[in-house]
Amino acid sequence: MTHTALTRSTLAAALALGLAGPAQAIEYGTLDTTASKVGFRYTQMGVTLDGQFKQFSAQLRFDPARPEAASTTFEVPLAGIDTGSPEGDDEVKAKTWFDTANHPVARFVSSAVKPLGGNRFEVTGELSIKGKTRPVSFPVTYTPGAPTATFEGALPLRRGDFAIGEGDWASFDIVANNVVVVFHLIAKPLAQ
To answer: What's the superkingdom here (predicted)?
Structure first.
């Protein structure tokens, strides 16, 4: 199911916002959620499927002149998942998948940004889903612009690490363990 995709999306967006870039006079601190997208990709019965998260938010600080000071907390309300079918959306909210009644939000908190060259960065932090917190790292590409900047990337994760898919769904023969959260985030400058 698309349960792991949720975690990816939450996490990927948060990480992207903590990236560094070339020196500019603009400090970014607002995510344009209308223009941004967070989705996920998973495999079910050998077929690759895509979903998205309709809601997400972020607290971020990113100054391209001081990337070492970048930080972000990215949150995704899991009840806003879109698997492509109403039945799938209801299923992944159940206790065996995301258990949204007890764990309504997936959260990523950045801890470090490492330059990889060419406006690419490795973002590290902690991803929390369904009461489990795991360290994660993933690459992000930063594209400066005026007045907005773009952060794009993908966060691979394993749904089993977060107990997403329990009981009959704990096996990976129907829904694969590997999920990728993909994101395209638009950040706006802080108000001057």
So the answer is: Bacteria
User: Model confidence over 1-46: pLDDT tens digits?
Assistant: 444 443 333 333 333 444 433 444 588 889 999 999 999 999 999 9
Q: Is the CB of residue 37 less than 8 Å from the CB of residue 154? A: no
Torsion sign (Cα): 143, 182, 95, 132:
negative
Q: Which of 3, 2, 11, 1 is nearest to 182 (CA)?
A: 11
DSSP 19-57: ---S--S--EEEE-TTT-EEEEEEEETTEEEEEEES--E
Point out which residues pair with 73 in neighbouring strands: 59, 109
What's the pLDDT tens digit per position in 157-175? 999 999 999 998 999 999 9
DSSP output for 76-143 = EEGGGEE-SSHHHHHHHTSTTTT-TTT--EEEEEEEEEEEEETTEEEEEEEEEETTEEEEEEEEEEEE
* Pick from 145, 148, 139, 144: nearest CA to 120: 139
- Give the residue among 102, 58, 109 at the shortest CA–CA distance from 79: 102
59 CB neighbour count, 10 Å cutoff: 15
Global pTM exceeds 0.70: yes
